[in-house]
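Here is one such tokenized protein:
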Amino acid sequence: MTARLAAAGVLLALLALPLGAGTLYSDFYLSLAIRVLAFVILLLGFDLLAGYGGLISFGHAMFFGSGAYAAALTLKHVTTSVWVALAVAIAVSALLALIVGFLSIRAREIYFVFLTFAFAQFAYHAVNSWEWAGAANGLPGIPPPSLWLTGRLPLDLDRRSVFYYFALAMAAAAFLVARRIAASAFGRVLVGIRENEERARFLGYDVTRCLRRAFLISGVFAGVGGALLASFQSFVAPTLYHWSVSGEVLLMALLGGMGTLVGPMAGAAFVIVLGDFLSSWLAERWLLVMGLIYAACVLFSPTGFAGIARRLGALRGSAETQRAP
């Protein structure tokens, strides 16, 4: 009941956020929230692969960047429909995840990490040299997307508050899809593979096929997150492919607690919001503070925020049991 009340409170706060923008606080915080929501979608997919399937990827920036560039090029040269841009981003990221997954999932542990990192670096340097995609200068002048329904234009997404609600709806839909996958038989098989791959194989499951499917789903989530960010911004750059983005995603997931879906979402919000505040106060030294937080998390709470919440819940339950007559 407490968890449901907390979730309802967070949802109400998110729905009310645009109401105070421009009066109680700057519009900038809506932009920050949209960035958080784009990363939330990316983290949900990453958690299905790493938290449930046990495969730590260090190349998810590749899918995030590819989704962003696919959406940006579609919006700029084909149509301003956000649905078409999202469809192209899903197709591109799915194809890329299919190829990379086929080649990478034959390896495990550090070898898998290295392979995903190598593919992401290859994509980063390729985009950096593509003149038709802006090369190192990036791709400016992306037009604002539109919501086209039944051939009419009922709602433009050029207003920040409108785009925020669109991004919130996309993140909510991504969470429901990820939760459905995690609770399905496929999700339980992924957990079984994470716990004991040999036993899962002995029970008759096609482990490689299951992990490739999880990798594909995870890549699509990352592509949708990138497309959402590119649709909001008027500019994309090759830095979206950089290894530091993949590292940031991994740290967000660790900080929130992998294998929980909610934990990585909280980790994404924490890192992006706190990073923004600290960088405005401490200039370049904010990275030192973030480094200390990451180190403290690994040393004292390896299961992240989700582990802390579970321990607090257990302590509360124990206290209530002791007070009971």
Observations:
- The longest helix spans residues 207-232.
- The chain has a mean pLDDT of 86.
- The chain has 13 helices and four strands.
